[in-house]
């Protein structure tokens, strides 16, 4: 195969929201940009799927929060339509062998369990405020917290089985890992980057306030349309070289010579690239100690959202089956009912390797237990196992294993000469969210612009 050569101001590896946001900002500043994407589509961890009826659903990232200002700016710029997340009716919490109901999720628990869980949440809020947003490894007790798993902290703090299981389900649903796989410091840092537990659970700044009519993938597609032929699909970058004052991005088809390079992808995927430039030992170690989470996203579609007339919100937090969380995902375009469920953490690793038909049966059994027999008989079912999705290797995000943040955390987004790191995990605010991805792309664009203007 003949290798072609081209020269650009900036080369960006990855056409997810981070890479596209960086490209948009740099192009507006007059830089000649090339974006190299391994997949045959843009969007990264956003993923569109079309149902047999022609309706779009989001098999990847889906929700926009009320305080996700950068994403909301894009929604407005592209004249897209927001759809408020349905949350009327009764929530369910299925833990400790029972299903509890209330119109506020955590108040569904028995009084003693609710009290101990609320106390734990309040303690998390107190602790996370002592973690510096931009340098969590500098927290006063960072070493001890980074060496303590969230599982250990939970066992020492939460005293009832129902509260422990509700906490486990919350961690799996939000982080797609088991509490034993993440350190207390990493957890506190992530909570802090989201504006606190109130934003994540049930506050006014909640993170699951809106969906997009037509699907979230429209954001990536519209960003890509504006960039035109600057985007090259199906070109995974295999090697990044540094020669003199330039950087080379090497694919199987071409060699792209650039003044500055941005790697806009998750740390474990970035670690698969060969680098012929001096990365620090901490950066190399970071990519080995920051694995992706594990999640299967499942949709069941019905003629109507029948659970609403039964007084249910569609919201479930659970440990009694394989679904950690369920939400109402009724289709904006037609009003047909849909439930979206998440198999997360250890269960996702197990069920990813099971046949889809077996997985479908088990998921529908769970839904029927929460919403009655009608939930077990959808007109369409589809799921996506992110751990076996090429160029993703998991979802929603990568999390630092215990002991990683204090030893390698400062290498997460610190540039290496003319090589910059972006992606949802590198954001200091809204880390792990689409909002964080967009912010990270704009951050590195600003860093490059400032270097060239100095």
Automatic annotation (TrEMBL):
Give GO MF terms, alphabetically. monoamine oxidase activity
Q: Which residues cross the membrane?
A: none
Q: Which Gene3D superfamilies match?
A: 3.90.660.10, FAD/NAD(P)-binding domain (3.50.50.60), Guanine Nucleotide Dissociation Inhibitor, domain 1 (1.10.405.10)
This entry's Enzyme Commission designation comes to 1.4.3.4
Identify the cofactor(s): FAD
Q: Where is the Amine oxidase domain?
A: 17-448
Pfam families reported in the protein's UniProt record: Amino_oxidase
SUPFAM superfamilies, per database record: FAD-linked reductases, C-terminal domain, FAD/NAD(P)-binding domain
Enzyme class, spelled out: oxidoreductase
Keyword terms = Oxidoreductase
Q: Give the family this protein belongs to, as stated in its UniProt record.
A: Belongs to the flavin monoamine oxidase family.
Annotated PANTHER family: AMINE OXIDASE (PTHR43563), AMINE OXIDASE [FLAVIN-CONTAINING] B (PTHR43563:SF1)
Q: What is this protein called?
A: Amine oxidase [flavin-containing] A
């Amino acid at each position: 195969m003949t290798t072609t050569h081209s020269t650009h101001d900036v080369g960006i590896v990855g056409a997810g929201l981070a890479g596209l946001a960086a490209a948009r900002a740099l192009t507006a500043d007059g830089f000649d940009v090339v974006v190299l994407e391994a997949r045959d589509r843009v969007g990264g961890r956003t993923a569109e799927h079309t149902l047999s009826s022609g309706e779009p659903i989001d098999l990847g990232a889906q929700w926009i929060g009320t305080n996700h200002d950068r994403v909301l700016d894009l929604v407005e710029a592209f004249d897209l339509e927001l759809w408020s997340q349905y949350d009327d009716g009764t929530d369910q919490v299925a833990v400790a062998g029972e299903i509890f109901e209330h119109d506020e999720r955590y108040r569904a628990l028995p009084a003693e369990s609710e009290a101990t869980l609320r106390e734990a949440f309040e303690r998390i809020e107190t602790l996370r405020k002592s973690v510096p947003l931009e340098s969590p490894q500098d927290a006063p007790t960072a070493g001890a917290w980074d060496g303590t798993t969230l599982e250990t902290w939970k066992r020492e703090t939460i005293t009832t089985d129902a509260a422990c299981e509700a906490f486990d389900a919350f961690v799996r649903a939000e982080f797609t890992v088991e509490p034993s796989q993440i350190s207390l410091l990493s957890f506190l840092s992530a909570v802090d980057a989201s504006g606190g537990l109130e934003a994540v659970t049930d506050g006014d700044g909640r993170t699951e306030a809106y969906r997009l009519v037509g699907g979230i993938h429209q954001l990536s597609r519209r960003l890509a349309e504006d960039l035109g032929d600057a985007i090259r699909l199906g070109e995974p970058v295999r090697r990044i070289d540094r020669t003199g004052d330039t950087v080379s991005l090497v694919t199987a088809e071409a060699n792209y010579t650039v003044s500055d390079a941005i790697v806009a992808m998750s740390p474990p995927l970035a670690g698969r690239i060969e680098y012929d430039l001096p990365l620090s030992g901490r950066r190399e170690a970071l990519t080995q100690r920051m694995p992706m989470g594990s999640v299967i996203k499942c949709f069941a579609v019905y003629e109507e959202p029948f659970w609403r007339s039964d007084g249910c919100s569609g919201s479930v937090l659970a440990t009694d089956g394989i679904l950690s969380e369920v939400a109402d995902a009724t289709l904006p375009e037609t009003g047909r009912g849909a439930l979206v469920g998440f198999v997360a953490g250890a269960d996702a690793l197990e069920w990813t390797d099971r046949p889809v038909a077996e997985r479908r049966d088990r998921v529908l059994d769970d839904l029927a237990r929460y919403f009655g027999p009608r939930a077990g008989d959808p007109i369409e079912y589809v799921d996506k196992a992110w751990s076996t999705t090429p160029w993703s290797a998991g979802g929603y995000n990568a999390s630092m294993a215990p002991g990683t943040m204090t030893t390698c955390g400062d290498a997460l987004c610190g540039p290496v000469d003319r090589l910059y790191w972006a992606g949802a995990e590198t954001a200091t605010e809204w880390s792990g969210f689409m909002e964080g991805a967009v912010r990270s792309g704009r951050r590195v664009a600003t860093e490059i612009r400032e270097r060239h203007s100095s």
